Amino acid sequence: MWRRHLLRRLLPSPATGATAAATPPPPFPRHLSTATAPAPDNSLASSLAAALGALSTTPPPATTPDSYFSLHFSDVRPTNALLAEALALSPPATSRAAADLFRFLVRRRSLHPSDGALAPIVRHLARRRDFPAVRALIQEFPTALGPATLDAYLHQLARAGRPTDAVKVFDELPEQLRNREALTLLVSSLSSEGFPSHAERAAKKVANEIFPDDNICTLLVSGYANAGKLDHALRLIGETRRGGFQPGLDAYNAVLDCVCRLCRKKDPLRMAVEAEKFLVDMEANGIPRDAGTFRVLITNLCKIRKTEDAMNLFRRMGEWGCSPDADTYLVLIRSLYQAARISEGDEMMTWMRSAGFGDKLDRKAYYGFIKILCGIERVEHAVKVFRMMKGYGHAPGVKSYSLLIEKLTKHNLGDRANALFREAVARGVSVAPGEYKIDKRYVKAKKEKKVKKRLTLPEKMRLKSKRLYKLRMSFVKKPRPRMRA
User: Fold this and answer.
1) What's CA 304's distance to the chain center, in Å?
2) Nearest CA-CA partner of 255 in 332, 316, 189, 285
3) What is the model's pTM?
4) Alpha-carbon dihedral sign for residues 362, 367, 368, 373
């Protein structure tokens, strides 16, 4: 009887069999399914980066890159963002493997060879100085060449010190891409990397087809000024004016910075006079001063340690209707700390936050302040700035902890240095323990106790005779000095 009752409880009834067949299976058998869940983008990008590293090892895998990618990434849905992230995570020596990955994604995984997809590949290859692979990709996918790809290619060529090759790439462009935008990219790349003469020759060569505008002239003048060629910059400003153009304010600020740098190098005392001459020339041509002009002047004054003149110029910015930017504040804070004007530096930091530039006070800026304060032996204030950095939500790094621990130890503050080391370990910052010597200036010298020396008998007799002699001489009448007539 009890066996029949047990079987009824274990076996399902016929009435519930049909409903049980319609219900989905319990969750346990679902885990035994062979279907894989889609991988998130970050893990897929890491897998692609690892595959690029595996293909770039020595010796490489026995299979071809196309077969390798087909075996491991046959179900990948590529996007431009995924490709850029995979290249950012890949090891340095993966240039040719990255080109093979792009070919595989275009041919097998239907990635559209657009400008946005080709630009990160070209930037990755050119950063490794693999320009033959870049040229092969551009020749293989000519329809994908666009402004972003061209900008990356020209900029990396100029950065690698190949201005002639950059000009040649521009000359070989097809008719639809050889326009004013491409010429601007060429001039900008060459001028920013210190080749303004090549940029000027390229602009003059195609002047009949693409006449330079104000932007190209500004880039050329700024390139000559940044390269320290003041005569060529002033010549180009004159040619631009005679041609009916007016270089932008950025060009004038770059020339002003060039004037200040040359004066700092040759005769720092003449910097104020030469800068004032150029400012008068700017006003005569109808170019007003802006925040960048004052930033250039204040930065160069701080570099020759004229902090008070820089502060006076900072206070007078309102007369020209200008407000200081974040870089001006940072330069002044560093200069005030360097001049040991600690309270003024803290006040300038408060003004910077109230002006809306608090986001520019990041971990890098705070580390610069701490380094300056430790350099002038103001360790207590450096610790204060360190606490301020943590209070505003910026996690200190290895450099900040190591610098403060070393300085606190040298100042004979070992307990505080140990506490800071324990805090770094608790936060997960890998600070390497080391041995630091205490500076002798901060070690208190021990006072030697004077031990009373026991005199010998001859020394006692000598002291006794000396005391008796003084006593006898005290009763002798001293002669009065006679007044001279």
Assistant:
1) 24
2) 285
3) 0.75
4) positive
